[in-house]
Amino acid sequence: MRKIVGALLAVISFWQLSAGELHYFRQVDTPQWRIPRPGRTFKKVKIFAERQPYKPNQNFQMRFIDRPLFADSSIRKELEKQGFLKDVEVVKMSGYDGFATIAYDSLHIQHLRFLKEANVKDYEHAIVFGTEGMLKEKDYQAWKKRLIASADSPHIAKYQGRIICVNYGSPDPRLIASLAEFIPRLHADKEVPPFLFISDLSFLSLYNAFNRQQSGGAPISKSEIEDFRRQLREQLQVFDGVQLRVHEIYRRYNGEYPRHMLPTALYEDYLLPILKEEYAKPEHKGKLIGLYPRHGYYNHMRGTLTGEYGTESLRTYLTGAAKMAPDVIMLFEWNEANENTHFQPTVANGRSLERIMHYARKCFDDEDPTPRPGDDVTIPNMIFSVPQQLRVGEILHIELLNVPDGTASEDLSAVVSLYDDKYRKIMDLPAEKFDRKELRAVTWRFPAEQLAPYQAVNYMLTVTENGKTVRYQSFDATKIAASSHVRYKYTRTALREILKPEKFHFTAERNIDGTYTVNAEFSGSEELASLEVVDSHIEVYSLDRNKEFENRAAFRGYLTANEMIGSLSGRFSFPGVKDWKVRSLNGCMMESFSTGVNLGSKIVVSNYFQPEGRGNFIISLPLNEMNKNPKFKVEFRKQPGVEIDLAKVWKEGKFALYIGKNIRLELYRADRLWDYPHHLNASSGSIKTVIRPAEKHPLVHLRAVSKSGKIFRTPSVSVRNAGEKVEKMSIWSEHYKKPVDIFMASDRIPDIKAVFDPGKGLFMGNSESPYWDFMLGGGHTAGETMQESIKTAIAKKYLPADFTVPYPEWVKKDGQDMLRFDGKGNYLLMARDLIPRSSPFTLSFEILRESDANEVLIRSCTFESGRSYNLELFIENSELKGVYHDTRYYKATPFFTGLQVPAGVWTKITVTKSVDQLIFDVDGKSKAFDFNQRAAMTGISSFGGAILPTRHVPAGLNFFKGYLRSFRVKHNVENK
Predict the structure, then answer these.
(1) What DSSP state is assigned to residue 495?
(2) Given the DSSP bridges, would you call strands 412-419 and 425-428 parallel, antiparallel or unpaired?
(3) Is the distance from CB of 492 to CB of 731 less than 8 angstroms?
(4) What tens digit of pLDDT does each residue of 412-439 get?
(5) What is the pLDDT, as a whole number, of residue 17?
(6) Which residue has the higher pLDDT, 389 or 788?
(7) 752 has which bridge partners?
(8) CA atoms within 13 A on the CB side of 401
(9) DSSP notation for 16-33
């Protein structure tokens, strides 16, 4: 079938294949970006990138899911200047005009100083004024200071002698009104140099009216359209231009989890015509238009995301941008690692976004496309994109994009082949023809329930051009999960950025004890930055020319706090241990652990304790010292000293405790690559190592990254075979938008049974894999249910006055280890998606209530947003009640079970969620409800804590008081 999608002229076709092959949908997109630009003020579009204080020399490991392609840990000890100038070098290679520092006044001024001292050529630095809150006098003075400090810089971005300033902030009309007072005042201030100000254009009212119309409500009225026109005129009277986000983002409640950036009539039929009409008027001549393009948004810690869909989101945005003909493009954002919005080259993205933006700029400026510097034009300028992980029921989206670069060929075709996790061929897709001169994206979408037999999908691309055939295999695999995953990142591979090997070898063999042995070698023509083993898209080993951890036991440490404490100095020591080492991991923002003087038996340390901040450090000692029962002693000023048995941590894999009532210390055995080593500076290397897997089913490959940014990957192979026993799962198909039945190997379906054993301190293990371990009292990081419980005034309102510590106590009762909750703020934190968002599950636990008060059992809310996103359970008047928050814009459905949970006796509570029912059971008495929705968001849940009232969760609840002795979640309906 054929279908026209907006102005994209996309062709969609469905292919029904023979039995045993996969069904898929194919789509072709050939957007046009070369559109006339009548009346644009700037002759050529200026492209700036917002730079955050994440640095290319910093370690993102185990906090962020991607890392800068040109990361260099060897310059960590250098001044901030070296890190910034390295970023400047990268942005110049990318062909952009320069950076703009968002929100940070001192950082902007510092950057200008660095640029002047280094005498950087052909580079501009713009100003972004952040306005997320209402403006105050201190904001005016800060803006004035930044403008004055920028006036004489040879690097400040200017137009006709006026500094270019862009606004990034809230679209709240009240804020725009506040800006309308600020900007004329700054212009009138004789101390302030001349500047241009481009403001965010608020269109919330029109956006809401459009949504109302799309949902079957009243059509957009003439007065609503004119109200938007009035807002635009008012801003153009005061400001030098406006900017807006071209396309809005939608989620289909019964479809895919990531929000989808789509072309909409809102832009084509309303925003764009009004903008063109107003900008054509004589009184608006010379006014600027700006844009904030984005290629996705993925905060893996909080579970919120706008899907990348390969490069589709960026292409959708640029298609709309071309019709506006912008003067200024502000990339959102250069290096925002927390939310993965970065346009900075990364290991997952390569330089693919740069290639697309380079072509877009040529189109916007009506110039002929050209290759990027250093390109091998004998290789097609194609980008192949695949998701890193999927859950059955989701959609496998594969994309092949051709980006014109001024070169041509007589005949170009490509065939995509799919292979399984043993690299056995699944299928070949039909050949696709391309013209190098045409921007063309071909996508294939597979309902992922067909992929249940496979642990992963690998890919090969066979390209034939002018009679010559080349096979490309250096692509990431897509891991297939049975029920849950939180990694919605895509890997985008430009064919011209594949590192060619001269020789390589890679094997991974499982050992009897569950570890696996890797043997690998690689040699090529370029110097390598790294040679790594990657397990489930996480680096677990990297060749280290400095041999920092060779024959040493290494541990990764975290220091966190549940309230603002500030800087504390302390001492680390290892009584009786020889040759111990401690160093900071020099993390990113909100991470500030540092080491000082070595006193022989002790080392001076300091850490800045703040909510959501983490002090990161590594300790190591000779392996032979581990036979002597070594201890790790920690002493911070004004805090009680603690001592940790390192042999116990080595055995258990992790350990946590509290220092006083506010500081949490976590220690992990270095099973993964805890830190990135220095660049190899060699063109070859070999690996032989034994690795402890962090997941039940390791999926591993070898990756080589060259210093020039090229990447080589072997196919990903499963180390552990799935068992022969299978079971039926009824899941929701995001493609067909209805339940489907599949059969999945039983040992691939998570069955998480808590292990009640105090051996890990303030961690509680489980029967499945370390990922699912529980945290007693939480880890005080982004997205936790109780993170805001002490931090904010509103949260303090819901914290008992006699609160002491957030973690429940390990106790022995009736000869069994269990947890006791004091009812004053104790809670147990679950891993993200332990109660799965979309898969069926059976949750059960046993409790003994010590109080008959109304109390919390399970929460899935955060104080930060006041919003819930999954199952919640509480007891009111001794009755078990539930609330489920689903994808229909966080719609909350209450469930009154009528089931009694008495105090003073052990009670087993079970909740079963299938595709069409929610069943509550208390000691064999059940209440079933017809219910076919999926949870609103992939988030973190807690047991026993968080008493903030939300929709259908009443005020006046208490923290749970009593005992917990079992906890299990199986990611399928458990058949009795």
Answers:
(1) G
(2) antiparallel
(3) no
(4) 999 999 999 999 999 999 999 999 999 9
(5) 38
(6) 389
(7) 969
(8) 26
(9) -PPTTSPPEEEEEE----
Whole-number Å distance between alpha carbons of 433 and 411: 8
Least confident of 250-264, 427-441, 626-640, 925-939: 250-264
Are the C-beta atoms of residues 330 and 290 closer than 8 Å to each other? yes
Q: Residue 41 has what pLDDT?
A: 83
What does the angle CA 408 – CA 410 – CA 416 come to, to the nearest 5 degrees?
A: 90
Return d(Cα 970, Cα 119) in angstroms, integer. Answer: 61
- Rounded to an integer, the average pLDDT of 253-277 is 87
Among 78-92, 384-398, 712-726, name the one with the lowest average pLDDT: 78-92
Q: Could you write out the DSSP letters of every residue in 890-951?
A: S-EEEEEEEEE--TTSEEEEEEEE-SSEEEEEETTEEEEEE----BS-----EES-----BT
pLDDT tier for residue 792 given thresholds of 50, 70 and 90: low
Q: Side chain identity at 735, as an amino acid letter?
A: H
Neighbours of 783 (CB within 10 A): 20
Dihedral, 734, 739, 743, 747 alpha carbons, nearest 10: 70
Tokens 């260099």 sit at which residue? 72
Pairing of strands 260-261, 304-306: unpaired
Q: Which residues pair with 168 in a beta bridge?
A: 130
Residue 202, CA distances (Å) to 219, 294, 317, 880 in order: 20, 18, 18, 45
Task: Count the residues in the chain.
Answer: 976
Which amino acid is present at 636?
A: F
Output the pLDDT for position 18: 37
Which residue is listed with tokens 């799309």?
Answer: 214
CA distance 418 to 428: 6
Q: What is the pTM of this model?
A: 0.94
Q: What b/e string do you get for 361-382 counting C-beta neighbours within 10 Å, with b at 16 or more? A: bbbbeeeebebbeebeeebbbb
Is pLDDT larger for residue 459 or for residue 12? Answer: 459
Say which amino acid occupies 443.
T
Asked if residues 434 and 380 have their Cβ atoms less than 8 Å apart, the reply is yes
- Write out the two tokens for 560: 């966190």
Distance CA 338, CA 782 (A): 10
pLDDT band at residue 117 under the 50/70/90 scheme: very high
Token output for 139: 């904001």
Phi/psi at 114 (5° precision): -60, -45
Averaging pLDDT over each range in 304-318, 544-558, 895-909, which range is the top one?
895-909
The residue with tokens 């309902």 is: 447
Higher confidence at residue 301 or residue 405? Answer: 405
Q: Which alpha helices (H) appear in 868-956, and where do they start and end? A: none
CA distance 424 to 427: 9
Distance separating alpha carbons of residues 902 and 923, to the nearest angstrom: 11
pLDDT over 80 (residue 634): yes
Report the relative pairing of strands 241-244 and 249-250 from DSSP bridges: unpaired
Write down the H helix ranges in 620-756.
646-652
Question: According to the model, what pLDDT value does residue 335 have?
Answer: 85
Mean predicted confidence (pLDDT) in 714-732? 95
Residue 940: predicted pLDDT: 87
79's CB contacts (< 8 A; 6+ apart) are none
Query: How open is the CA angle 122-123-126, to the nearest 5 degrees?
Result: 150
Between helix 105-118 and helix 137-150 the angle, nearest 10°, is: 10
Report yes or no: 65 and 489 within 8 Å, Cβ to Cβ.
yes
Sign of the CA dihedral running 428, 433, 435, 441? negative
For residues 882 and 590, give the distance between their C-alpha atoms in angstroms, rounded to a whole number.
37
Count each helix (H run) and each strand (E run) in the chain, helices first. Answer: 12, 63
E strand or H helix at 356: helix 352-364
Query: CA dihedral defined by 929, 933, 937, 939, rounded to 10 degrees?
Result: 30
Within 10 A of 810 (CB to CB), how many other CB atoms are there? 17
**The pLDDT value given to residue 38:** 61
Alpha carbons within 13 angstroms on the beta-carbon side of residue 364 total: 28
Which DSSP string do the residues of 172-198 spell out, in sequence order? -HHHHHHHHHHHHHHHH-TTSPPEEEE
